[in-house]
Amino acid sequence: MRIISSLCLSLTIVTTAAAQGGPPPPPPPAGNAITPQKIQLGKALFWDEQLSSTGTSACASCHIPTAGGSDPRTVGGPASTNPGPDGDFGTPDDIFGSPGVPKSEADGSYILDEFFGLRPQVTGRKSPTMINAAYSPNVLFWDGRADGSFEDPITGVTLLATRAALENQAAGPPTSDVEMAHFGADWSAVVARIEAVTPLALASDLPGDLAAFINGRTYPQLFADAFGTPGVSAARICMAIATYERTLIAVDAPFDAFIAGQPGALTQQEAQGFQIFTGPGRCIVCHGGPLFTDNNFHYTGVRPPGEDLGRFLIDNDPGHRGSFKTPTLRNVELRAPFFHNGRFASLEEVVAFYNRGGDFDAPNKAPAVAPIGLNAQQRAALVAFLRRPLTDPRVQDGSPPFDGPTLYGQSTNQPTFYGVPTAGTGGFVPNIVAIEPPKLGNTNMTVAVEGGLGGAPALFAVDLVADEQGTLFYGARLHLARTGALHLYRAGTLDGVGPGNGYESVMLDVPNDPTLLGTSLFGQWVILDAGAPGRFSMSRGVRFNWF
């Protein structure tokens, strides 16, 4: 009980909230009032992968509520690793970020990227949480580049003078050729796409409120309902998404019950951890207030400041070299890995990092980041406090308002692969790239190959029946049954020069034929390669399940 009693002395340092549930949500910017219809429209757009050029990336892809508003795919490995400033994978400056989209042209054909080939590119920073972002109305992103003044993304006219950082941050990803868009994309193309698609056509398991709001209507109809007048526009897309994000307020954690007068809301170990948090651990210096962040920028010694200049790139302040915005610690246990580069996989590693005073030094290093000297028991208590006490159970469970549909990228509708490839010249194996949705009516579903013989003729063969074991065809293993439905998409010659450097794309036009629903199509890349054991090299097979 001594620990619990002594905590009361620190409560005013941590929070000024007087009632369970934390501080009230801040008001929206003048000019973008919150309405139920606009919230639901923003929710639909936030979860709609059709906002991207490939149909594979939504705002929610990188900001899943049950992952604390960050990206659960950020787990290291090739799919979520950016090589960092040195351009080499497997070195200390690697960044664990979010998979975006393959580099592509407006027609859907893929462009070979220096680091990622034809695979989805990976962002250069880990995704921060959007939960409680409304409490920072004038500065968002790790480097704070989204400020409070919102301009129309197409016309440049200022629409919201202040408190509009959420609108600003929503304007970035849809035209980023790493996160969501084809190379050279602009907002006019995004608007045209949203006008034409069926809302959330790629998603499933829609929450009841969202399904009732859409109710068979088109996006133009939903926009008219939300804004009172017809018209889909870039500004309205951003304003609707921002409105939805303003509802994602999570300040109802066990810690909030504790400060509301329920001492038993924390265990003995958690209470000790809070005492360390506000005392010898010095966490309170940057993580004070009801949201456990000072919303300021600090260099903490995670990596040398020159690797990513952070806030300095925005304000040119030498004191901000390598500095990043202090993240909220609410729901932090759900957001692994941690820091802007995803360097540490666990909270234990984070606490150990601060306990040793960081790993790198610079003149502008935050003074609070210095050796602390916590013992193992103290570190364990601190970690215990950072976990359950700061986690809103609604976030962890995906309960309203933190619910959402199942994304295409989370579903069993994605293409699957089978069989084995046949190597070509130099032993290089052609790799099939098939990530886009096999949705009926998808008129531009890209399928690509990389790792073949540059300059060699290639085609993409499809059939209605697979040959799982494979049949030898001129020394290569063909995984199609060669029925009367066999069809060849001629791709010309592979771009690139030499063995292992060849790549190409084909775009399939999927008929909008309801009789195909639930059926499958099988495909395989075939490359005429004189250096192969026979005359051909081939990729493994791919199965598309139409939905």
Descriptive notes:
- The chain is α+β, with helices and mostly antiparallel strands.
- The protein has 3 domains: 2-23 and 265-390, Orthogonal Bundle (Cytochrome Bc1 Complex, Chain D, domain 2); 36-245, Cytochrome c-like domain (Cytochrome Bc1 Complex, Chain D, domain 2, Orthogonal Bundle); 412-545, Immunoglobulin-like, CATH 2.60.40.
- It has 14 helices and 19 strands.
- Strands 9, 12, 15, 17, 18 and 19 form a 6-stranded antiparallel sheet that branches. Strands 10-11-16 form a 3-stranded antiparallel sheet, with no helix packed on it.
- A hairpin with a 2-residue loop joins strand 13 (466-473) and strand 14 (476-480).
- Helix 1 packs across helix 10 (268-278), helix 2 packs across helix 8 and helix 12 crosses helix 13.
- The radius of gyration is 26 Å and the shape is globular.
- It starts with a helix and ends with a strand.
Characteristics of this structure?
Cytochrome Bc1 Complex, Chain D, domain 2; globular; alpha+beta; Immunoglobulin-like; 547 residues; 3 domains; 16% strand
Structural class: alpha+beta
Rg value? 26 Å
Number of helices: 14
**What's the pLDDT, averaged over the residues?**
95
How much of the polypeptide forms β-strand, as a percent range?
A: 15-25%
CATH topology of the largest domain: Cytochrome Bc1 Complex, Chain D, domain 2
- Assign the CATH superfamily of the largest domain: Cytochrome c-like domain
CATH class of the largest domain equals Mainly Alpha
- CATH architecture classification name of the largest domain: Orthogonal Bundle
Q: Number of domains in the coordinates?
A: 3
